[in-house]
Design goal:
- The protein is of the alpha/beta class.
- The protein folds into two domains: about 5-285 and about 405-415, Aldolase class I (TIM Barrel); about 295-400, no CATH class.
- Helices cover about 55% and strands about 10% of the residues.
- It is built from 18 helices and ten strands.
- The protein has helices spanning about 20-30, 45-50, 55-70, 85-90, 110-120, 140-170, 190-200, 225-245, 265-275, 290-300, 300-315, 320-325, 340-345, 350-355, 365-375, 375-380, 385-390, 395-415, and strands at about 5-10, 35-45, 75-80, 95-100, 125, 135, 175-180, 205-210, 255, 280-285.
- An eight-stranded parallel beta barrel has the order 1-2-3-4-7-8-9-10, surrounded by six helices.
- It is globular.
- About 45% of the residues are buried.
Amino acid sequence: MKTLEKYSMGIGDRFGHQGKAQLQAMVQARSEGIEIVPVWNKSFREHSIIGTQPADVRTEADAAVKSLGWKGGYYVDADHINLKNVETFIEYSDFFTLDVAEEIGHPAEAEAIQAFVKFCDNYIRTLEIPGIDKPFDITRETITAAARKYLFAVQKAGEIYRHLVSAKGEGNFITEVSMDETDAPQTPVEMFLILAAIAREGIPAQTVAPKFTGRFNKGVDYVGDTARFEREFNEDLAVIAFAVKEFGLPANLKLSVHSGSDKFSIYGPIRKALARFGAGLHLKTAGTTWLEELIGLAEAGGEGLKIAKEVYARALEKMDALCAPYATVIDIDPAKLPSAEQVRAWDGSTFAAALRHDQSCGNYNAHFRQLLHVGYKVAADMGARFTDALKADEEEIAKHVAANILQRHLRPVFGR
């Protein structure tokens, strides 16, 4: 069976030019004793906007590994797939994120709910989970309510998983079940029952992405009660450890944190919790690399800076359309965005300072950063003009990409 290592990081790369720079950060991390594997991830939506194909991600990953002589594991993730869009990913991916968040809340058939409640009969009691101080009183009503909310979603994940098995063979890929894009965080009991349903459905999930408390906005820091997040994160780890033994799920089952880039205020609690439980983690990132490309272009000056400014100006014009698909994961106050005229007067250092996620810098603008995060379609529409600039300024861009992954993400979360 293909087995995901203890620590892994999803590295998105919108335009497919930074695979080597991304991997270089992990090479450096390994030299510092941080053992982590890369997972190149790209969703159907991103492919559609950029005009790329899943084959391009496999090509990028393989080329980076060969160029740097990487000897560790690495994977290509078909990110947020379902039965409607999975086909083009099957040949080139060996990691599949089964996104069933849209099915949450749709009730399964009554017979299926009754069967699941019967399956969980043994847990209708006071349940003590090691690592969680307070025991849980689980009733038949508790299980029924969880089944009505989550069972249909898990059944859909099962359908996708079995389709993949028929195409790729059992044990030839890694499975993640994603339920993060929903209204409220799952309680520990709900998480336990979700894992029961996953096991009963026969899905050998190696990572699971729950909904955490607070807001995980794209490209900026965590917004919410960090103490509550820490408590919930620890509870999720405890539930996973318990459920693995109870249901025979894969021993390496671990949490997956989506939109995990730049969540600096919770990296400390995550690191502490992982050490406490001896747990693994999959930290999923996406648009951070694209933003580092803009920073590199701006600091390179010349045509690169001109392009960066144009991307912002056009993103400002098309803000409503660009933001609509990401409405639940961004918070942009238009009043706090600089005008296109202001940005045109900036030099490269000023542009980079406004965009770079350095909260100690007075010029940093989280609203500016979020708009550019979702504005990659503007760059895609530039076609070869944008990608040629990436090639021309590759050295400057790669420096920023590698430093961002290593210094702001790998060391704070996984460092010793």
